[in-house]
Write a structure and sequence with these properties.
Helices cover 88% and strands 0% of the residues. It is an all-alpha fold and 121 residues long. It has one domain.
């Protein structure tokens, strides 16, 4: 269920990053200039990560472990944004300009993987 929900969203974000790279860059710049948005997104990411971990807390030897890892990733990213929003600005400004195509590829790949696996079973 989690893969079915998050897969299409991640794939759409990845596609958007690859197709509208300049628009996403401007959006990222606006986001990084707003500490309240960083804090709020941290609350949302941590909530989503904890929800995923409550619904799917298991590690297994198949693809389902990626769902658990995704939950942990969201929970940790959210925690980092809440605890140290000033570092998010520093890291985001330094990194996003250089790796935004890579983010698009990763989001599209992960979203496609989750969508295919989620709807195949």
């Amino acid at each position: 269920m989690i893969a079915r929900l998050s897969g299409p969203i991640l794939a759409a974000i990845g596609t958007g990053l690859l197709i509208n790279n300049a628009a996403y860059y401007e959006t990222a710049q606006a986001f990084l200039s707003s500490q309240p948005m960083i804090y709020f997104s941290g609350i949302m990411a941590m909530t989503a990560g904890i929800a995923i971990l409550n619904a799917h807390p298991r590690w297994s030897r198949d693809w389902r472990s990626t769902v658990t890892a995704f939950g942990w990733m969201l929970a940790l990213i959210g925690t980092f944004r809440i605890v140290a929003p000033q570092f998010v600005v520093y890291i985001g400004a330094a990194g996003y300009a250089n790796v935004r195509i890579g983010f698009g590829v990763v989001f599209l790949a992960l979203g496609s993987f989750f969508t295919l696996k989620g709807y195949a079973e």
